[in-house]
Amino acid sequence: MLENGFLLWEESNQAVPFHPVIESDRVEGTAVFNQQGKQIGTIKRLLIEKVSGRVLYVDVTFGGFLGIGIHHRTVPWDKLSYDKALEGYRTEITEEQVRDAPSFYEGEGDDLVWPNRKREKELRDYWHDDPRGPF
């Protein structure tokens, strides 16, 4: 409806727009699915480049029972895309690629420590990833 040259209201059959912004704590705990829709992990945390504020990687966890035997692997954020139907992130990465990927951290479980330059290089080499910012 137009009034004084302004569009005030218009009936529409379009769906409510998708909101592109999400809080980090809502991403953490979200499932990661392969192309077939099988869950291959869960996002534990986002790894953010300090200066730009861009998310570079996610820490994906899998395995374990009651907190024992959980494995952490690091996956490039740009390899994930949100799937509204699954209410999770879908990736072309296979379950095997995730399991074989290096972890951003040394060790598993709660004994996580920040990486050194060698580990950063291993991570970038594994994913054929160009440096997108300093760690």
TrEMBL record:
<feature type="domain" description="PRC-barrel">
    <location>
        <begin position="22"/>
        <end position="86"/>
    </location>
</feature>
<protein>
    <recommendedName>
        <fullName>PRC-barrel domain-containing protein</fullName>
    </recommendedName>
</protein>
<dbReference type="InterPro" id="IPR011033">
    <property type="entry name" value="PRC_barrel-like_sf"/>
</dbReference>
<dbReference type="InterPro" id="IPR027275">
    <property type="entry name" value="PRC-brl_dom"/>
</dbReference>
<dbReference type="Pfam" id="PF05239">
    <property type="entry name" value="PRC"/>
</dbReference>
